[in-house]
Amino acid sequence: MTHIKLKEISIYHPETVVNNSFYMKHYQEKGRDATKFLTDVLGRENRYIIDQKDENALTMAIEASKRVLEQANMTGKDLDMIVFSSQTPEYTAPSNAIQLHHALEAGNQTMTMDSNANCAGMTVAVDQAARNMLTNPYVNTILVVGSDYNSLMSNHDQEITYGNFGDAACAVILEKTEEDTGFIDSHYYVDSITYDKTYFPRHGLKNAILEGGKEQSIDWLPFDGDIALEPTYSMIESVLSRNDMTIDDIDAFCLSQFSIGNINRIQEHFHIEEEKIMFVGDRFGYTGTSSPFIALHEGIKSSRIKRGDNILFWTIGGGFQLATMLFKY
């Protein structure tokens, strides 16, 4: 029986680390105390931030992709498909995946595609890539890379973005195998009720080009984030049930790193042991599309995640959409 294995994973982040004291001072000068929000709600301490003119989401993706190919002892010509996931793409034409194709010297048979499901993007991309491989006999190896230049779109007036976001990329190689491992299943929940709460560019692409003087950073309008929790509990229970699994069968939880508060509530609801929760948001900040996979990478690096472990991914994208995925690493 054919399975889709996560062969290798690698990350890239900028060198510059910015800690909470910078943002606390920034908001103190505005007459606000952001300490409790940054530490207790978001769970932040440090984050990696781009401060070089020649770095962006694409350059980070290229570096992460080169690293993962080297780890896998592969070249670009071994890839049947390249999928690039980002909500801050450096280009819309040619696609960033085409740019990756060139940088990696991929072959003529290598398909390319950009995708964007906001912060849920890389999880959705891995899910869709795995399902494509299961149905397409000619696609055996796919590179999926997620990269967000989050600090580019952050709003300096709003702690939920400026004090929250970090910049990073993560790349994974998926391959067909006969081993009993890899992709198991996924489940989604979409409710577009908050479709108008987090626009970027703030005034749309047309106005960003034609009316360059307008402020285009993300404008995060207030909404009740708790509306995502009950559907989250339900979808996790559903995807486990239909695969004859329970919460105790999961060895590691790679959840959205947007907020330690959300992670804590999911952990409390399901009575999950602390050692199974992969939290890296205190070191990386919130990296958007790559967030659950950077948690996976760090879990593997620290030996908390091992081959054969059952992983549950969960994340949320703007608008909003929830995605959960089961994977045997």
UniProtKB/TrEMBL annotation:
Top-rank taxon, per record: Bacteria
InterPro entries per the UniProt record, alphabetical: ACP_syn_III_C, ACP_syn_III_N, Thiolase-like
Gene Ontology terms describing biological process: fatty acid biosynthetic process; secondary metabolite biosynthetic process
Record bears the keyword Acyltransferase: yes
Domain Beta-ketoacyl-[acyl-carrier-protein] synthase III N-terminal: 113-191
Keywords: Acyltransferase, Transferase
Residue intervals of the Beta-ketoacyl-[acyl-carrier-protein] synthase III C-terminal domain: 240-329
Molecular function via GO: 3-oxoacyl-[acyl-carrier-protein] synthase activity
Record-given protein name: Ketoacyl-ACP synthase III
Record organism: Ornithinibacillus caprae
Lineage: Bacteria, Bacillati, Bacillota, Bacilli, Bacillales
